[in-house]
Amino acid sequence: MDTSKSRQELRENIKALGTILAPAFEREPLIAASVYEQQFRCGKPTCHCAEGKKHIRMAISVNRHGINTARYVKQADADKVRKQAEAYKRVRNARAEFGKWHKEMLGLLDALEANRTESLSQFGIDNKEENK
Predict the structure, then answer these.
(1) What DSSP state is assigned to residue 28?
(2) Extents of the domains making up the chain
(3) Are the beta carbons of 35 and 58 closer than 8 angstroms?
(4) H helix runs in the chain, sequence order
């Protein structure tokens, strides 16, 4: 890749950084958990779940010290928990995207450096000494 293209891609990637990091600037609190709905039967013989239509409750999966644990969420807290868990997921995704962006930027900077680096031979230093 030539120097001009490298510079152009660097500029484009820098513009994309604001979009990538936008979730990090949100103010909503985060919950480090995954949210899911769980279906279950309550066990009462006269309940509608005994005939097939199960109850649904919201649960979260939390990783504590490398161990995943499930916790049930009160119906009154369900929307708040869901929003905060989704905000957490957006931040984690932003972090992953930033890692890819960073790796790409390093590659572009390496290419730019390689294109701009001149040989020391112009100063009377031979190539054998360059490799030491």
Answers:
(1) S
(2) 3-117
(3) yes
(4) 3-21, 78-116, 127-130
